[in-house]
Amino acid sequence: MKKFIFSFLLCGATMFPAFSQTYQELSERAVAATEQDSLSLAEKYIEQALKMEPANPHNALLFSNLGTIQHRQHRYEQALDSYTLALNIAPRAIPALMNRAALYLELGKDDLARIDYSLVLDLESDNQEALLMRAYIHMRQRNYNFAKSDYERLLKLAPRSYNGRLGLATLEQKEGKYEAALSILNAMIAEKGGEATRLTTRQYAVLYVARAGVEQDMKHVDLAMMDLEEAIKLDSSQTEAYLIRGQIYLSQKKKELAKRDFEKAISLGVPQGELRELLLQCK
């Protein structure tokens, strides 16, 4: 969650003479520059405001927004420093905690991300994004009981959560509870076209790929292939669909077809090195 939350800085804003550059005006100019995607200029305005009033408590917000600008520029260590400075001023600032957690997760620092999401949940127990992301981290770390607890808590708050239900289905699959996983995915796919759902074509494609993965684990290859075909028809950029289908083709000794799917996955962004062994098996 990367939000620029400047609203309370702007409350009661007044018009300033053209030659005046107050703390608040610099903050306003940072907002305008950010909205125009002039990130370097926005950063300069924020830095000027911080130098002008280094003890201003609103600097927590400026540091947080500076961190997000740096994150967007892929200056990750500087972004972490900025988020931490924001939290040194305002330790209970949920946006800064969420932003830092997201960056930790992106950098593969799962334990630090989990700590920040847990701090958010201590402050706001019904924060759905924090629950979702902590569940995801627990699942990656194979802490399945904790992951399930967070997913179930999320789904009590938002029973129709797409990511929550998909995450729980993935968890059930990882635990070998294939029927439970299929039950969730079948229900989600059955909603297609219903008035109550507003999922995108891409989201439905992901569901078909997920179900194919479960079917593959269950050795229901024909069903898996049907779902993969449907997924690719809905969204031809579904990398995972080509990977699963390539593995199935390879298991069937259809090496040329398998190679074609692995090469398609590489063209969609999968590093070639990750598929080297599979490609060798296609010869």
UniProtKB/TrEMBL annotation:
Pfam families: TPR_16, TPR_8. SUPFAM superfamilies: TPR-like. TPR repeats lie at residues 60-93, 128-161, 239-272. Keywords: Repeat, Signal, TPR repeat. This is Tetratricopeptide repeat protein. The keyword rRNA processing does not apply. It comes from Bacteroides muris. The keyword DNA-binding does not apply. Residues 1-20 form the signal peptide.
